[in-house]
Amino acid sequence: MIRTQAVLHVISDKQRHRLPLLDAMLLSALGGADIIQIREKKAPARETYLFCRELQNACESHGLSPSLIVNDRIDIAMAANAQGVHLAQKSLPVDVTLQLRHTGHWDGIIGCSVHSFDEAIQAYESGIDYVTFGHIYASESHRGLPPRGIHELARIVSALPIPVVAIGGIDITNIQSVLSTGCSGVAVIGAILDQDDPKAATTKLKEQIMRSIVQPKVPFSRKREIGM
After folding, report:
1. Which has the closest alpha carbon to 149: 173, 167, 127?
2. Other CB atoms closer than 10 Å to residue 6's CB: what's the count?
3. For residues 100 and 109, is the Cβ–Cβ distance under 8 A?
4. Span 135-186, pLDDT tens digits
5. First to last CA, the chain
């Protein structure tokens, strides 16, 4: 039996990085990040596209090939030949995005964020490939809002036959509890970008993932199977 492991997503944030953002994202790739998500909600399309291409080139020059996911902008994901797009609340509807994938000669994965059990079920029924759920713990990105918690994460993981990625306040101290739910991966910002050494921080998180005795219920894959 082949053992599978949860994946580590690192999400960009122009407001939360100690090193230049490109350097920090590259260092996270060098540390073992499986997926890098470029989330620049206010940047012009050209700027985000060029950042994606620069990061891709930097990774390739180091012999790295983390999957690149672009937040919100499927046009940029397609133009940069990224491996996926992550839909936000104000993004194009899922059915439209799926149609663009079908007709646009692009075969990327399509994910979205959910914040409740009902939203997770709705996302699955819409045809989405994966969801991120959170925030699991108190988070700088959601100050003042109560966390959703481990039990709700486990409930969603149990209910959905597609990958569920946990996000929000996850770090070296609590990642094992998150992985114990059988989630498909964890997504982080501050646990890596807020650190002086993003590469070392990424490596430590990856080591914790390797040590987990709980395999993901659904391995994170490129695209859901037809008819799922």
Report:
1. 167
2. 28
3. no
4. 999 877 767 678 899 999 999 999 999 999 999 999 999 999 999 999 999 9
5. 23
